[in-house]
Write a structure and sequence with these properties.
Two copies of one chain form a homodimer. Chain A is built from five helices and eight strands, in the order αβββααββααβββ. Chain A has 141 residues and is an alpha+beta fold. Chain A folds into two domains: 33 residues, no CATH class; 100 residues, Alpha-Beta Plaits, CATH 3.30.70. In chain A, strands 3, 4, 5, 6 and 7 form a five-stranded antiparallel beta sheet that branches. Chain A has a two-stranded antiparallel ribbon with strand order 1-2. In chain A, strand 1 and strand 2 form a beta hairpin. The N and C termini of chain A lie far apart (39 Å). Chains A and B meet through helix 1, strand 3, helix 2, helix 3 and strand 4 of A and helix 1, strand 3, helix 2, helix 3 and strand 4 of B.
């Protein structure tokens, strides 16, 4: 009897864990995922804008896959009026550790060697800050 | 034999349809959801910033629920350096129709009566544009 129901129980557990509208995903009371949202801004140099856009129109597959390995998903970069705005969701447990892993990746380093010269921090960025954090003032799941 | 496998097949179909990393969710080849992402920017008047933030720290439940009814989800508003940036996902079939429905809602109108005076369009906004569209230059699911 138990065996007959096992696939159904597994099904319910999986479905309850993949509701895309919830940031706090619970399965039978066990916390299995916590999404951190992150918004950032940086300036793009006018003479480098088209190059930056062309790079990102056809991003290197290994750059994308390394971001995924480092628990980044639903990552968008927007442009307007000389600024780049990014929105991403982080599903890992240790942001700093994952960012160190990303920075240690040779393909990502080669990508940044092309993208970094296109950018410069906003005037209000703190010392050493590249992409500057935005402050979340509202969120609706 | 077929009956024994039926729950497994159902499980696979549902799991394939609820991958949170996919914008195009397919179940048995039927297109069931298409998410449109939207980034926007507007200025916030310095003297109204704290009021705007306090409103959005405790948004009216009916404003939130009307956004949900109008197929808006995963909606965040960020602040930095005098600007508000928004990111949202739209899951409906007719953006203009849903925006008309939202604008016709009396509670939303009362909310906007408070929030509109806090904002002003960016200099580059087109005639009649309130929140100005950002251009998506990159996306990773």
């Amino acid at each position: 009897m138990l065996n007959n129901f096992a696939p159904i129980v597994l099904l319910l557990l999986l479905v309850s864990g993949c509701n895309p509208q919830s940031n706090h995903k619970l399965t039978s009371g066990v916390h299995i995922e916590n999404v951190i949202r992150k918004g950032s801004v940086i300036k793009v140099k006018p003479e480098k804008l088209e190059f930056y856009k062309s790079l990102h129109a056809n991003p290197w597959p290994l750059v994308d896959s390394m971001l995924t390995v480092c628990n980044i998903r639903n990552y968008s970069i927007y442009y307007r009026d000389g600024f780049l705005f990014s929105y991403l969701e982080y599903t890992g447990a240790d942001w700093n550790k994952d960012m160190e892993k990303l920075a240690a990746d040779s393909v990502t380093q080669a990508w940044w060697k092309l993208t970094d010269p296109c950018q410069e921090p906003v005037e209000s960025a703190t010392q050493g800050e590249w992409w500057a954090d935005l402050e979340e003032v509202y969120h609706l799941d």
